[in-house]
Hints:
The protein is α+β, with helices and mostly antiparallel strands. The chain has eight helices and 18 strands.
Amino acid sequence: xxxxxxxESIVIIFNPNSTGDAPELAEKLRDRLxxxxxxxxxxxxxxxxxxxxxxxxxxxASTSTRNVLVVSVSGDxxxxxxxxxxxxxxNPEAVCAVMAAGNANDHRRTIGTKPLEEAIAxxxxxxxxxxRIHTGQGPGEVAEYAHSYIGFGLTPVVAIDLEKGSKGxxxxxxxxxxxxxxxxxFEIRQTDGKRRKFxxxxxxxxxxxxxxxxxxxxxxxxxxxxxxVIIFPHMSKWRVxxxxxxxxxxxxxxxxxxxxxEFTTLKPLPYQIDGEVxxxxxxxxxxxxxxxxxxxxxx
Length: 299
């Protein structure tokens, strides 16, 4: 059940070098909240200065004030950092929100219900699931969280290629085609000991990604304690293209829902987590699991 909240502090985190006018949007949000709110919280603008800085700022915000709202004015990658910072802070009263400003805003587009400033003024907090990935570093490992998806295979390889060139619809299309022509499948070992070869393996908490593709018919509330597993087993390239085309035109239909998925890498493997590309070493045990209702949000 939703709860109605007011906040002692609202921290707005943004990248001053964003491609999506984040500084201007952050300032407008601050000014609009000052007009709309019937109480007077401290509202702080926090620009980031380097990669990973949003994690630090969000963690600090969530631990310095118990009753705090941390807003990310960003795309999916920037919001991922804020979510991870808040989760690291361990404050169950800290609430997150995102205002879309970036190249990809899959999460805000699929999860958002109303203009953010209105949602903050109403204060109706709801909880959504997160994805949590463990990459086998042992007891002291810090788990990573994803608000939307984690992808192995073709997904991160395309993302790496997009980052090499400037973004834009035509250039994105050429990058995808160029990458696809060079792409090779990857192999993992399942928990039953069998090896399987994939072109793509995506764990999704939302039904859409990459602005165009409908991955599943999943409920977009992202709060059922499960996530969808979208598998492209290794196949001929023309069949991969047909499957990708189906995703962008009619969707891929129902996909299996699970609460956890485990495998072991055989070679170093890149993966994409909410738009950000990372990698996992060879011979590493990987576990992706649902974190039910882990994140309080507004919007």
